[in-house]
Write a structure and sequence with these properties.
heterohexamer; A alpha/beta (188); B alpha+beta (133); C alpha/beta (149); D alpha+beta (407); E mainly alpha (336); F mainly alpha (521); A: 188 residues; Beta Polymerase, domain 2; 5-stranded mixed sheet; two-stranded parallel sheet; 4 helices; disordered C terminus; E: 336 residues; mainly alpha; 72% helix; globular; binds iron/sulfur cluster
Chain lengths: 188, 133, 149, 407, 336, 521
Amino acid sequence: MEYMKPEEIIELFKEKFNESITNSRIEIKTAGSKKNSYSLIWLEIELKVFKEAVKLLCTIQFPHFAIISDNDTGEEVKLTYHFSLYYGERFKEISLNITTNLPKNNLKMPTITDLIPGAQTSEREMKEMMGITFENLPDLPNVFLPIDFSKDVFPFRKDEKGVYPLSKNGKHIGGNIIDNEEEVKKVE
Amino acid sequence: MATPMGFELLKQLFKKPATNVFPVTYYPDSILKLLEKVEKGEAKIHPHVEIPKNFKGKIVFDRDECIGCKLCIKVCPAEAIEFIPEKKKIKIHVDHCIFCSQCNDICPKNCLNMSEEFLLADVDRSSSKLIVE
Amino acid sequence: MRLNKYFERSLWVFHLNTGSCNGCDIEIVAGLTPRYDLERFGIKLVGSPKHADVLLVTGPVTGRMLDRVKRVYEQTPDPKAVIAVGACGTSGGVFYNSYNLSGSIDKVIPVDVYVPGCPPRPEAIINGVLQAWIKLEKLRESMEAAPAR
Amino acid sequence: MNKKTYSIPIGPVHPSLEEPMTFNFEIYGERIEKVYLAPGDNHRGIEFMGRQRNPIQIIYLAERICGICSASHPFAFCQAVENAAGIEVPERGQYIRVIIAELERIHSHILWAGIAGHELGFDSVLYISWRAREEVLDLLEYLTGNRINYGVFMIGGVRRDISEEQIPRIRKTLEYYKDVYGKIEDIFLKDPTIALRTKNVGVLTKEDALRLCAVGPTTRASGIKKDVRQDQPYSAYADLEVKAITPDVFSGEINGDVYDRIIVRLLELVQSIQIIEQCLENMPSGEIVAEKKLVKLLNQLKKAKGEGIGRHEAPRGEVFHYVKLAEAEVPEIWKARAPTYNNLMPWAPMLLGEQIADIPIVVASTDPCIACMDRVTILNKANGRKDVLTKKDLHELSVQKTRRITP
Amino acid sequence: MTSISLFGILIKIIGAIVIAFLGVVIGLFYKGIDRKLAARMQARVGPPIRQPFMDFFKLMIKENIVPQNAVPWIFNGAPIMALVSSITILLYLPVGNIPPLLSGYGDIVLIIYLLTLPAIGMVVGGFASGSPYANVGAQREMVMMMSYELPLVTAVVALGWKLSQVYPQLNIFSLAVINARPIWGLVGPLGFIGAILLFITLAAVTPGELSKVPFDAPEAETELAGGILVEYSGRNLALFGLADAVKTVVMMSLTVALFFPYNISHLLALSGVFALIADVLFFLVKMFLVMFVEVSFVRIAFARLKIDQVSFAYWVPVAIIGLLGLMLIVLDTIIV
Amino acid sequence: MNLSNHIPILIVAIPLLAAFLVPLIGRINKKATGTLTTLALSVSLILTITLAVKILTVGPQAYVFGATSPSLTLPSGLKFPIRIMFQIDAMGIFMGLITAVVSFVGAVYSLVFMKQHSGLDKYYSLLLLLTVGMFGMEFTGDMFNFFVFLEIASIASVALISFRGIDLGEPAEAGFKYMVVSSISALMVLFAVGIFYGQYDILNFAAIASVIKYSQLDKIALGLLIPVLAMKAGAVPMHMWTPDAYSEAPAPITMMLVATSQASLYALFRVVFSLYNISLNALTVGWIIIIFGLLSMFIGVTMAIIQKDIKRLMAYHAVSQTGYMFLGVGVGLAVLANPVALNQYGITAMEGGIFHIMNHAMYKGLLFLTAGALFFRTGTKNLDKMGGLAHSMKYTTIFFIIGAAAIAGLPPFNGFASKLLIYESVYKFNPLLSIIAMVVSILTLASFVKVFHSAFLGPKLPQFKEVKEVPRSMVFAMAVLSCIIIFFGLFPDLIVKNLVHPAVMSLIEQLQYTGTVLGGM
Ligand code: SF4
Ligand code: SF4
Ligand code: SF4
Ligand code: SF4
Ligand code: SF4
Ligand code: SF4
Ligand code: SF4
Ligand code: SF4
């Protein structure tokens, strides 16, 4: 089968979406004493072309989807979709990480489950944990959280909608802090 | 019946079992009396499976060497080490310890070590047996 | 509650995982396999708490398991004993500061014997059983002595 | 007989699941009509805890995502941190990592064989195979000081070297497994009752495996040659010829059923032995860890900035860790994905239409570890609901916490 | 059932108590041996042989929990029924050359019926506990019962028929009669093969009757958490355990009586009490051998079958073997 | 004139009289109708028992209407006056006992069970008429009278089946089906009667038997009678009416319908044994009957297993159990001409078959009554809708267990006693027969365990929270049957020796039967 080089892949994306690719980077890693190398691609793209990009990806080869990483940076939510392409031969696999930013006030994502059904678990995780609405994702009961969990609390958020973690030293790590019993009471 | 498993089982019937009969083969008449006898040296307990060198067992602490630098506390993943400010020494709660020996590695004075003791079960988790200081 | 000397010789065990990492659980199963063979002591794993005499509890008790641990404990017919296996069962271990964990089993149900270790070797678990025997035998002796008073 | 379907809850405490996990099945007679999964009984909030700890502490947390892959998660996590912070692992360290990882695979696959036998009501298999498994555990204990949760991985390498005098012992174990392997293969693949219970049961088509993103032996048994060790060789695997194993190597056909998953795992056992032998032969000399001084390492990590991923082919499939460091004591993001997370969706096509009696073996055939599946933590601040945390629990927690901090 | 003298009745009652006691003791003892052997084959030390006794005494002091959904008198009655019916069968079984305590009309049919009773007791108990697992278990037990009945009955009837052809005047269905006339001596070569087939049939039915692997679908621990018995605890569980032990003895002695009724005393030229003891011991040894082959070995050397596979196995291959055996025996008689 | 000589007529006359009195009384006091019926039937029952004792000690009885002694009125030669004549031998009284017990129990049970229905006077008089019809069929010694009583019973049955409401679809349909079946069979019986009368000019069973030539016409008559009577007895493949009829009739009537079916069965045996006996090709006819039996047994039970409606389920079991009777008697018939085999096992087989008739009437009656009790309290016959009733209906549960154990042939209940006789004998004829019979028995057991589970076990359902035990008279009715079942089960030898064996012998020894009437010709 035809394998595209990482540069070619990035080219392909840039050609199709030009400005919408805000950032791209190829990372080459070596391993072992023979220092053989493999490559990773990091892409940052705008939300509006995200679905199209995944579609394009699917035309190269049916990608393996790993997981969605979340990062609540305050103003926006960064989602990184981790894919890999070209399984089956040594050193040929390319890890592809596509990041996109969602504004906090409009956390809507197109679903990719129509293209890659296996992404469902991860999308549902993001829905439950991050409060991201996936358009056209069937509204199934919670997988991770209890069925009757409140619909306004999203444990992965670092803002007021997140949970209140207990930290051992009261340092601010992500969410709001409960440091003493009075505050515990206030929260309740 | 002529399955590979069948043969294997029948063969095994005439071999010695693989069991290491620690601490005794069967339940003794009275465990208390047995332990008493062991104490007195009248009876023996079957040894457990041999322990390799560098086994990570219950932690031992050389208190005199410790300088109270708290580095061990910084890396302990289980919050098993407690600092006693008035003595500037540490105290290890073995019931919290996960036997990773990370504290041994970081201690600048090498005053922490893993022993070979691993039979730590107790009816009280804050008994003196489970606190090293 | 009645006790007799056959109780210790025939401890049927229900294994309850309350959110552990499996380390302890596989060591418990290993305890049943030929090298250690807990069945020598009449110990066998059973599938229903109704049949159990001893609960072998592992893990730091996650929020969702909290009620279930209590329920399993209630469903176990008297007399019964609880052995907490592993650091996270005894104290929380590495899982000490999550808000979804009770941290240790003795906060939920009474625990008779603790087996520290992460995971404890199967022999350490056997040692835990031995501690339970000792405790039971002492208890029995005190119960037998009681009517005399 | 009974026309109506009825539902059977399995779990969270059920003998066929060593870990807590809830399934709900709608059953018609003995046939499964619908499957509902409700994970979440094992939520510990490991990622959450990790975001409050320094990377060295996280290694041990990652180790305890699951005690069975207790080398895999640290392996992937360390790689992710190394990639993020730009740390090079010395070659010797890479080789030792692979040896430990492959030894783990041996123990894990044999463990699985025993559990599978047990789920089939064939306890002799459990006993016989676990007896053989003790050998590798002894070896691991000999090398690392612990039977499970070895604690040998360190960011930048490994914590313990494999010395010259330890090598004969490793070789002895490998010889032992070459011996035992034939027996295990006979028992599994030539037993009529096992064949009866596993052939054409829990079929996952290649198509479904791809679409549902299955990983590990589950996907390979369906004919997809996917194996990170082959596709994107990392660490010492880059020097070794590793080939993804599919069942046609043995039987000439691919059905994607439970039987095929057995074949794949058994063949991987042999593969692991070969990999370790190669490693022993080619083991380079030198350092085993990039930075010996832990205090220095901690400082280095505190100053590092960047993101990185770590992938490792665990016995059950690929584990995937993503770490983002942002010049802080603790990582900004730590994301861990374990194989069972991906192998969850394929259960539905495997289980539908099968019988109650097939549930344990089908579920076990993907070798699930719910321990790593249940990722997230829950707290409802709006109303302290019961199955989350009651006010009292919360209170107690904070009290203990206070007690711990100021004893 | 016919009128007997008061003394006779007294003797029978005492005999019944003694036999019940011995049956239970031997049953538990054999269970211990079975566990020990299985353990040894699996390379383990295994529990001491008296382990089943300790389990029993332990269970007797345990709390007896009756689930909320259960009807208490049925729930508690089921184990008693299972035990009593298994013990009753014992009274009909000959030991060595000692004739059975009770006998009369068609014992063996009675035994076949009584054999279903412990199973029914378990089914009723399972249904009565109102847990879904127990429910599925009970349904499976019923399916099993329906399945193994055909081969079981075939084996028994075929033997009876053969005997009736040779000794038309005897009460063929009495076990004492069968016990005194080994089948092997009555048949020609064809019939001999037939008899072997029948023995195989009975051997295949035995693990089913006793709910042992590979036919233990009703109790399938990994699927149903103990199935029928999930909700039982304490004394009731102990009684079911006893019933199981006694049933094992029953199945073993039934096999011995039907197929290996030989005695040893005349070979050793013993007489009187010694002959009696020798025969009883020999009987126990035969039982042990049968148990080893049919139960201990089989239960650890195979995987559990699914209930539809069990049902198929009994209705088709095993039943065909049984019917073939029957046919051969009939042919053997007609041709000669 | 000795009153005891008139017992046969009194047994029939008292219910008949009561049947006419009931509507009259009903005008004055509705409640009295039931009491009167019960009273009449209890008198009948006592008289039947008395008569049974007499017959079993003295010998068969003949009673000729309007004559003091049967033998006096009998002219010599072969001409018989057409007159009503009862001719009761051990077999007849055996059936009479069943009828007497069942109808008495049915009446007692009806007292409360039917309370809330209107038209009770009609109900009771029909019930009495049905009883009369049954007695008549069993006692009569005359073909034409048999036809008349058959019709009486049929008409009463049809009316009773649809009693629950002619405007309700199902009862009416069931009644209609039964009517069609009855009319066809009546017609055929009439045909057969015609054939005999045409050939021999006589209608008396005994007389026909003594002259029967087994001509072509006789064969046709036999060909008409066997299927038709088998149909009325509910044998497969002519069983289609039973589930409807049995399930739609009120429970006590269902119980009596079972007895009616058995009266037809009796008639069948009577025709085959007493009328034709060895004159026919016993082996062939025997096999025909055996095959009827096997089919009924197997198809009945397999159909039963899948039923949802508790009474339909029991109805299919009735079909299946009828098979046992056919099997036992069929084997007896098949070896009728072979004295060695007959002695070795034929007689035992027949004893089993005949004994099973009585046992079946008892336990199936009991089962239908428990089903009625469930219906009475829950208002449903659907098993899926029931559940947990053992919590509140303890006695009914116990009776059900007894009935179910008996029908499944578990020791020590009566079903076992009769089935044992069958197993122990038919295998000598053909081992497969025993095997099938035993397997069917286990299937029956399984089916009833299932019913027991769905109806009685499980959690207490909210909709049945108010349910309590049925009233005492119903409990009493069921208790009577239960006692009989247990008694028969415990002392089968007693019953077999004193009741069943004579009945069988009276069937086998044709001469004994004809001789009663014909004076030892
Ligand atoms: S061994 Fe590990 S867990 Fe134990 S005290 Fe040291 S660092 Fe902490
Ligand atoms: S690291 Fe060593 S010296 Fe420092 S406090 Fe800990 S034990 Fe003491
Ligand atoms: S104690 Fe350690 S090994 Fe055991 S379950 Fe907890 S984390 Fe895992
Ligand atoms: S005090 Fe609580 S949080 Fe801290 S280690 Fe103990 S159990 Fe865990
Ligand atoms: S009891 Fe049985 S099913 Fe449960 S864990 Fe143990 S061996 Fe497995
Ligand atoms: S599924 Fe895997 S991890 Fe889970 S209990 Fe079984 S073997 Fe252990
Ligand atoms: S899949 Fe997960 S839980 Fe299972 S062994 Fe691997 S890391 Fe552990
Ligand atoms: S998956 Fe969950 S439990 Fe596991 S490491 Fe991630 S956050 Fe923690």
